[in-house]
Design goal:
Elements (H helix, E strand, L loop, with lengths): L15 E5 L2 E4 L16 E5 L8 H6 L1 H22 L4 H19 L4 H5 L3 E4 L5 E3 H6 L7 E6 L3 H5 L5 H6 L3 E4 L3 H8 L2 E2 L2 E5 L11 H13 L1 H11 L5 E4 L8 E5 L6 H8 L16 E5 L4 H11 L5 H17 L7 H18 L2 H4 L3 H19 L1
Parallel strand pairs: 1-3, 6-7, 6-9, 10-12
Antiparallel strand pairs: 1-2, 4-5, 4-7, 8-9, 11-12
Helix pairs in contact: 3-8, 13-14
Amino acid sequence: KRAPFDMFTKYKKSYLKLYMRGVLVMEHLENILPRWLKYIIRGLIDSDDLPLNISKERVQQDQIFQVMRQHIVKHAIEMFNNLAKDEYSYPCFYYQFAKNLKLGVYEDSYNREALAGLLQFYSSKTGELTSLTDYILRMKDNQEVIYYISGASITQLHSSPFVERCNQSGLEVLFMTDPIDEYVMQRLKHYSNKMFVCLAAQGAEFGDTSQEQKTKEEQQAAYKDLLQFIKNTLGDAVDDVQLSNCLVSSPCVVVTKPFCWTARTEYVAKYQILQHREPTTFSPSRLVLEINPEHVIVKALKKRVEDNNTEDTVEQLLWLLFDTTLIVSGVCLPDPSDFAQRLHNMIELGLTAGTVAEMFALPSETSTNASDEEESFMEEVD
């Protein structure tokens, strides 16, 4: 009922015993089960077809053991499928052995589809763990893909800018917070003929109508100068700058190029305990900045560029906006001290320009105060 805390260490021994006609031949049968199943199954194998002088090397080569391996894995998956029908027992089992099932999806290509059906992820719609089969049953009629996003916690993913368009359109998103999910999704490209789409990668489509596509083309032409200005300002910090179709309330977001590691994948791979820190040991993410053409900040920047009013302050604001976007998008800042210095400069500028109350006063409050002063002045004149 409880997974061993050291089950993935190389020194952990198997719980499977081998008997030959009732005679114990091997106390710990190591090589007959795949690694993902090795510590879930406990029991013994009693066979009449094995020689008594069996060895560990023969276990790997003997055809009888290969057949045993296939049958054991098959029956184990059937047992897990039967257990998945129990809504009370399976959550406890999945909590303890979810990593084993995910490791099986990653390593066992022959049983990948069957093991994927046992996986469960948090849903943006139900707020609970859900299977891929249940997700497909709840999909909209015009939805052809499975949307997912990975991150450090469910709370962060709920408020992530990547899911704004899905939330607005009522599309369900799977939240993945386990580090092994990054490796699983590299192998699990589809399930039940439905492709997986990572919202943190470039190219996510949401079934735009012809009118929406036409509007996007018009915006692309209108924001061409701003996109070029941002790319020239940020330089090599980004590969490209484009308009976004996934943002609703956020000004911008950073995505990665297709077929490249996402920011979360790079973080998991880079900060493993025994990972070499050399740049050649991992594939760095290629970042693309996507801006929201409907946001007030982006519209203000567009007006500054059209008026040719792009002094050094605008560039510093753009860098500050880019740094905050990196944080929100889950990308590690290349130099936190630069971000802190820009933020301190903006705080100093705001404090020297006026009082803190004036800085954060809402336009409605400002207009109300002005009208009250005008009324009091008129009364004095009367």
